[in-house]
Amino acid sequence: MSATIRIAIASIFVGALVLGIKTLAWWLTGSVALLADALESTVNVATAIAALIAIRIAARPADASHPYGHHKAEFFSAVLEGVMIIVAALLILREAYTGFLAPRAMDLPIEGLLVNGAATVINAIWAWVLVRRGRAARSPALVADGKHLFTDVITSAGVALGILLAIVTGWWLLDPLMAALVAVNILWSGFHLVRQSLSGLMDEAVSEDTLAKVRDIISREAGGAVEAHDLRTRHAGQATFIDFHLVVPGETTVFDAHEICDRVEAALKVAVEGAKITIHVEPEHKQKHSGIVVLD
Questions:
Q1: Are 206 and 233 in contact (CB under 8 A)?
Q2: I need a labelling partner for 111 at 20 to 30 A (CA). Which of 59, 146, 197, 214 fits?
Q3: How far apart are CA 104 and CA 30, in angstroms?
């Protein structure tokens, strides 16, 4: 079992623990804002399960039906997570509206806040672990899960502040108001996550920094060639696909051209983790004079 899958499994158990603690906080207080916080944790558990399934599928090797692998499965998980976040936000808005119509004092508000605070601390620690490990493993599903938990931590802190103000001022309308603010923040988080994941599904190119690194490596390592052009990149889960045309002098043998390609591929795989490289070798008359100039 890979480390990524172990972390995904642990996320399910952590999410269930936090959900239980937040539900207890809501039960102690009857707070609409704490109910909103608990509803968001329900989404956390569901999306952690979806992330685990996606990671297991993405780890499968290429086969006859999927010759390029299953890497994009993680993007589907991240899109699903974003959609579920938006659904949770709409449910919270409904509860907030009910609270606006009939605001009420909370039962045991301090006790509820302490219980909810414990859940927030657990979420903060686990969110940091997920983002750190997800980036190291180049797993969009784990990073998305971690970023969502960070928004959960922020909204939990806002909820706690709102409830404290309600206790001090006696203005219990602050409770549903905080629930509504939580919902708006979650909506924004869900929208951003869906947009980011769709960019991966639409084969968006790698970042400008990574692209510059790829161009520099080709220029330095393709000695013996003339130029490289039609460079294309895309990322899918833990894989980064790089393909380009490499122009070599007409008298270059197949063996020598292959040696050049092997040298470039080796350098790219060191610099870009998970790189999948395709190089199309062309004779000198195919030169475009507009691509990557190979350094002597």
A1: yes
A2: 146
A3: 9
Domains identified in the chain and CATH numbers: 3-201 (1.20.1510.10), 208-293 (3.30.70.1350)
Q: Measuring CA to CA, which residue among 4, 140, 164 is closest to residue 79?
A: 140
Cα 267 to Cα 294: distance, rounded to the nearest angstrom: 15
Q: Which amino acid is at 173?
A: L
**CA atoms of 120 and 155, how far apart (whole Å):** 9
Low-confidence ranges of the chain (pLDDT < 50): none
**Residue 107: CB atoms within 10 Å:** 12
Give the pLDDT confidence score for residue 259 in this predicted structure.
Answer: 94
Question: Residues 263-289: pLDDT tens digits?
Answer: 999 999 999 988 899 999 999 888 888
Q: Which residues pair with 30 in a beta bridge?
A: none
Separation of alpha carbons 74 and 53, rounded Å: 9
Bridge partners of 187, per DSSP, are none
Say what the pLDDT of residue 119 is. 92
Phi, psi for 91 (deg, rounded to 5):
-65, -40
Q: Are 141 and 7 in contact (CB under 8 A)?
A: no
- Extended beta strands in 189-226, E state: none
The CA–CA distances, whole Å, from 175 to 1, 18, 95, 100, 185 equal 44, 21, 11, 9, 16
- State the pLDDT at residue 265: 94
Distance, CA of 220 to CA of 293 (rounded, Å): 9
Q: Are 140 and 274 in contact (CB under 8 A)?
A: no
Tokens 């983790």 belong to which residue? 273
Pairing of strands 275-282, 239-247: parallel
Tokens of 104: 């009420």
Sole residue written with tokens 């350098």? 267
